[in-house]
Amino acid sequence: MQNNTKRILVVDDDLEILELLKAILLREGYMVVCAPNSTEMRHALQKWKIDLVLLDVMLGYESGIDVCQELRENNNVPLLLISAIGSDKYRIKGFNAGADDYITKPFNIKLLTARVAAVLRRSKRSASIEYRTKDINFEFLGWQLNSNRQELTNPQNVQIFLSNGEYKLLTALLLNAPAPLTREELAEHLSNENEPITNGVSLSANQSRAIDVQIGRLRQKIEADAKLPKHIKTVRGQGYFFATQVTRVN
């Protein structure tokens, strides 16, 4: 498998696991950079163009969840969390912090490499969808979304950072406002090159919850009160719609 154009950053304080993951990924044809802690991770992100981060949830005295959340404040790099804790509570924490996927230890090597490839494919497809909306900018109640720069600014002209997933969800809702979108349609927009959005297959409970978590993060950023949203409304049992009037600016 020829993946030598993709560079993966592996972050784990367990040196044996670090070497194991490195060997697995090198065998798959990826370039690999290793970091035993978040400090070395930041140095690597500054030095290299990283296509994917594999981050352990337990980093000694550090929380991988906190590191993930901090990274998401200024970086859109795809991120896959690895953890010995497989409970839904921790999975939700991981997605809420901005992770793109979550896999538990001990992991099946074939499953791990498949999940890595899937996250990288989704990242590649996202670039294609962004191109399709590149010349469309949006305004709503003083907010502005610039699709060329993928920048959101609030009515006070302060830039609000969006993760790649949050940007794709907001774009989908704005493009289709005020029509409601199901969770399947939102998931399809995140992972499928084809436009317009079409009905996808049914999602699992965890996949539906992942969409809800990302919508919750987006509400935290654009709503005055995320518990009483004015922009992104819920259609009970179905999905979401953007209730505020949207203006397209080409």
TrEMBL record:
Which GO CC terms are listed, alphabetically?
A: cytosol; protein-DNA complex
GO biological process terms, alphabetically, are: regulation of DNA-templated transcription
Q: Which GO terms describe its molecular function?
A: phosphorelay response regulator activity; transcription cis-regulatory region binding
Q: Is DNA-binding given among the entry's keywords?
A: yes
In the record, 4-aspartylphosphate modifications are located at: 56
Residue ranges of the Response regulatory domain? 7-120
Q: Which PROSITE patterns match?
A: OMPR_PHOB, RESPONSE_REGULATORY
Highest taxon of source: Bacteria
Extract the DNA-binding region annotation as residue ranges. 135-244
Alphabetically sorted, this entry's keywords are: DNA-binding, Phosphoprotein, Transcription, Transcription regulation, Two-component regulatory system
Q: Where is the OmpR/PhoB-type domain?
A: 135-244
Fetch the SUPFAM superfamilies from UniProt. C-terminal effector domain of the bipartite response regulators (SSF46894), CheY-like (SSF52172)
**Disulfide bond in keyword set:** no
> Which PANTHER family does the UniProt entry name for this protein?
DNA-BINDING DUAL TRANSCRIPTIONAL REGULATOR OMPR (PTHR48111:SF4), REGULATOR OF RPOS (PTHR48111)
Name of the protein in question: DNA-binding response regulator
